[in-house]
Amino acid sequence: MEKQTFFAIGLMSGTSLDGLDICYSKFIKNDSIWTFEILKCKTLPYSTDWENRLKNAINLSSEKLLELNSEYGFYLGEKTKEFISNNKITELNLISSHGHTIFHQPKNKFTLQIGDGRAIKIKTNKTTIYDFRSQDVLLGGNGAPLVPIGDEILFSEYDACLNLGGFSNISLKRNEKRIAFDICPVNIILNNLANKLGKKYDKNGDFARNGTIDFHLLDQLNQLNFYQEKAPKSLGIEWINENVYPLIQDQKPEDLLATFTEHAAIQIAKVFNDYDIKNVLITGGGTYNSFLIEKIKAKTKTEINIPEKEIIEYKEALIFAFMGVLRLFNLNNVLSSATGSSVDHSSGLIAN
């Protein structure tokens, strides 16, 4: 079989609201082997207005949420069109958009990532694939994590891949199957606490490093029921609102940062140790939190690999671009062993 080459843009907006990640990549299929190259990438920080609108969308009426879904779709389309123009991109097979998660309740059979892909298609005139999670939830899965298909095919040299974003999630091979699950909240809490100290995030974990751990609170966090549940499992903002924020109201932000950083390190290292992971690739914005990484290293013998900046920051957007390529050819892009759905499947709506 001759070599096939595809060019795709992946769009990713995470729960920590760091901004919109745009990643333009080339994928080459040679027989059954896939390789990739990141060609151009950029993170566009949200304006204060967009950040607030996305953060508060969970409280909107259905009519206002539908309006925001369209408006955010056109925003994504406009930003992608500018990215294509600024980088003089001429070879492009598709745009693949994760959207921005507003609701995630797989047990109730729904999840919602806003940003209508048809609006992206209208703005860019490019085939756009979107809404990757809903089908999996309808098939009985968690609708997350989805990136394990990319870990399995593009990053198979590692025992496991850990993403430190709004939530930490991991994928690893067990009994010839790729399993994956959310571990605990990370940046969604740490950034919120750093905001109270006038910063967007806790740079290098410096606030946490100078705070004091509240061991009573730490114990309460570690006892939350989610940590006793078996994988596959996933987290959403609703879970945090119900279980975490009620516990962390009154203490000093520095002490809460110290405590929650310790909590995240304990939960992540526990997974490494429980699954006897030899080596792990760590990506996502939390990788830059050197204090958190130090804490994790101190609690495990797992070899920690931190890649180049482009992979740290754009691995998820890269994999969503790859998922779009797979979807275009109706190839499986969601693994039931990772999400808990009834079957592996090819997910995503296509606007063309």
Automatic annotation (TrEMBL):
UniProt cross-references to SUPFAM superfamilies, sorted A to Z: Actin-like ATPase domain
Presence of keyword Kinase: yes
Gene3D superfamilies per UniProt: 3.30.420.40
Enzyme class of the recorded protein, top EC level: transferase
Domain of life: Bacteria
GO biological process, one term: peptidoglycan turnover
Keyword Isomerase: no
Enzyme Commission number(s) of this protein: 2.7.1.170
A molecular-function term among this protein's GO annotations: phosphotransferase activity, alcohol group as acceptor
Keyword entries, A-Z: Kinase, Transferase
NCBIfam families assigned: PRK09585.2-3
PANTHER family assigned: ANHYDRO-N-ACETYLMURAMIC ACID KINASE
The protein's name: Anhydro-N-acetylmuramic acid kinase
Organism in which the protein naturally occurs: Epilithonimonas hispanica
